[in-house]
Amino acid sequence: MGYQQVYDQAWNDPEAFWGQAAQAADWFSPWTQVLDRDASPGGRWFVGATTNVCHNALDRHVAAGRGDQTALIYDSAMTGTVEHYTYADLTEKVAKLAGALAALGVGKGDRVLVYMPMIPEAAMAMLACARLGAVHSVVFGGFAATELKTRIEDAKPKVILSASCGLEPGRTIAYKPLLDAALAMSAHKPARVLVHQRPQLIAPLDPARDTDWAAAVAAADPAPCTPVEATDPLYVLYTSGTTGVPKGVVRDSGGYMVALLWSLKNIYGLTPGEVMFTASDVGWVVGHSYIVYGPLLYGATTVLYEGKPVGTPDAGAFWRIIQQHKVSVLFTAPTAFRAIKRDDPTGALMGDYDLSSFRALFLAGERCDPDTLHWAQDRVKVPVVDHWWQTETGWPVAANCLGLEPKPVKPGSPTTAVPGWKVDVLNSEGQPLPAGEIGALALKLPLPPGALPTLWENDAGFRKSYLTDYPGYYKTGDAGFVDDEGYVFVMSRIDDIINVAGHRLSTGGMEEVLAAHPDVAECAVIGVADDLKGQVPLGLLVLKAGVSRPAAEIEKEAVALVRDKIGPVAAFKTALVVPRLPKTRSGKILRGTMQKIADGQEYKMPATIDDPGALEDISDKLQTVGYAQSGAGAAS
Ligand code: COA
Ligand code: AMP
Predict the structure, then answer these.
(1) Do 398 and 525 share a structural domain?
(2) CA 474, CA 183: separation in Å to the nearest integer?
(3) Which residues are in the Acetyl-coenzyme A synthetase N-terminal domain (predicted)?
């Protein structure tokens, strides 16, 4: 069947389509309803069924004779280690870890927070939670203690799983002091913290609260898989919202499993037994779906890579991994390819490796600029697929479905909607716009399995953030258009979220941090274009009257404050003191206009601007640090 036929089936009769797709998984008891459209707030899939995601990702493959196949390859460029875990090994290790968690009192529905670097124990932690029906919440290692504390307070974990350290080029990141600081600030205290000691740095343990991972696992009995409802949460993953308070995206168990299984075959074109290398981090949704759950559910082999695309040791790192582990599909963010292109402009290092296993490159996490797309296409000589999705959607919304029917590529577009999703472009009244017109990208309800059913303990917040503005639709927060052949073009966000090296961050959250500086009266953070990271944040600060300290000193403190409160991942390196911020007469700060000026784009002087001189001052100031260079001025 071709793409269009499958697409129509999935949209016209989702119950039949996904009910059929669900046959790819094991269920302990069948559903009474494939889709309950009325279940509040966002609809529910496979109602009444029971299953276990860990059983589907591990035990069932062992039972089906895949026990000796490699499930996970840990490749650490940071330590020079490569480890292979078969499905049988991984099942045993996960069952023991689940036993250790059970001994600490973790059971079905309890939350477990995972704060870990890219080591196999991080994947084991997630799967062990799934085995017990506990709900994991993984927090990315590049976040600071305050961000960690916010997530601990919201998820209220019974147990936290962590490691002594992460390894970044040139430095060892001690995780335990960050975790201790977060717990000291947190109103919620977990019962226990299980710490995996890495040889690079041994963390001191507090016997009243901390347990050594290896000792706990050695003493544990393996735990069986606990049956859960298909609608029970598998995990909560926090992502940036429009304020400093992150949103706890809930993922259900059954629907997610079915969607991932379908996607591996039909989008990624993978066959069980093949190798998928997703170069991301388990702290992001890409890591959840395509480092851990997707490949394992499907019976493929996943590569968990601790390292960077460049500098560990060079821009040939991905090619080395493809050769060494016979990778079929590579998935990463465009920023990784921009980094490779910067260090190895001709792609010469590719020539050093045998890439004969390599079949497709998938890119997501940020807009794939046509330059990067062409550079990659010209060199890798396999299909390069830009695909669009979000933490909330859990799996791709628009993609070139290589397993169904590959389509011609249009640079700048992640191709057409994936079966199950209906992408419409809406005007401010929520009316669909004709092909080619730019508006808000919205997904018509019902959403397919795998998409978030709600926010963690916040149904009202879910409705308000996603369902209220456009009745009958889910609001993506992205703006763009769909052309007359159904190709989706994602142009920008309609909120204050920016994308820094494929990492989603809230400028509103950074403004909250800067506003807390004692000398800052008001501030604005904008995302400015960056050749490597796509966008980086830049802060503009107006000081309180009477502050006479040197501006450079305060700018330095502001940079340190964001790193301390949000984390290095924010890549906040530039703060500028300015005399005033440009605003409309009603007091709205003109962030969009400032962003255009910074990027050297032509901009429109807003008719409602209060003080046009403020924009010129900002432009002058931005030029002192290398922005606002093209000289493009206000369009008449
Ligand atoms: N723990 C602690 N710190 C971390 C971290 C982690 N898990 N991950 C990143 N950091 C730190 C980095 O060390 C860096 O710190 P610095 O300011 O002291 O240099 C900062 O956070 C920013 O990290 P990163 O965004 O990785 O930038 P980089 O300059 O180190 O590397 C790229 C740039 C392009 C190579 C890198 O961003 C990359 O590999 N991106 C791939 C895209 C990706 O994984 N996207 C996820 C969604 S698909
Ligand atoms: P995250 O939730 O971190 O995965 O970030 C999701 C956001 O990243 C989306 O809402 C988009 O703004 C952006 N994004 C992800 N993939 C793409 C893509 N292929 N093209 C354009 N933007 C993308």
Answers:
(1) no
(2) 35
(3) 3-57
Which of 367, 392, 452 is the pocket-test mutation for ligand 2 (most atoms within 8 Å of CB)?
367
437: its two tokens = 């017109």
- How far is CA 6 from each of CA 3, 17, 597, rounded to the nearest angstrom? 5, 9, 45
Per the structure, the complete domain to which residue 31 belongs is given by 3-307+387-421
Q: What are 191-207's pLDDT values in tens digits? A: 999 999 999 999 999 99
Beta-ladder partners of 362: 331, 385
| Of 421, 441, 472, the domain-final residue | 421
Q: Tell me the HSE value of 574 on the side-chain side, using a 13 A CA sphere.
A: 21
Task: Measure CA of the first residue to CA of the last residue in the chain; give whole Å.
Answer: 52
Q: Whose CA is nearest to atom 4 of ligand 2?
A: 390
Q: Say if 457 falls within a structural domain.
A: no
Instruction: Give me the pLDDT at residue 636, please.
Output: 46
Residues 412 and 547 in one domain: no
Q: What is the CATH number of the domain that holds 262?
A: 3.40.50.12780
Last residue of a domain, one of 373, 403, 421: 421
CA-to-CA separations, 186 to 145, 146, 194, in angstroms, rounded? 10, 9, 18
Question: Mean pLDDT lowest for which of 2-11, 57-66, 160-169, 610-619?
Answer: 610-619
pTM over 0.85: yes
Nearest residue (CA) to ligand 2, atom 15:
365
Considering the domain architecture, whether residues 413 and 525 belong to the same structural domain is answered as no
The verdict on 396 and 535 lying in the same domain is: no
Tell whether 527 and 414 lie within a shared domain: no
In a domain, 368, yes or no: no
User: Can you read off the two tokens belonging to residue 154?
Assistant: 């919201």
CA dist., res. 566 & res. 588, Å (int)? 25
- Cα Rg of the chain, angstroms: 24
Nearest ligand 2 atom to alpha carbon 286: 4
**Which ligand has the shortest distance to the CA of 147?**
1
Q: Could you give the number of structural domains in the chain? A: 2
- Listed in sequence order, the residues at least 6 apart from 34 whose beta carbon sits closer than 8 Å to its beta carbon are 14, 15, 16, 18, 19, 22, 45, 46, 47
The one-letter amino acid code at 379 reads: R
In angstroms, the CA 443 to CA 401 distance is 18
Ligand nearest to the CA of 363: 2
Establish whether residue 128 lines the binding site of ligand 1, counting it when its CB lies within 6 angstroms of any ligand atom.
no
How remote is the CA of residue 569 from the centroid of ligand 1, in Å?
Answer: 6
Per-residue pLDDT tens digits for 446-462: 999 999 999 999 999 99
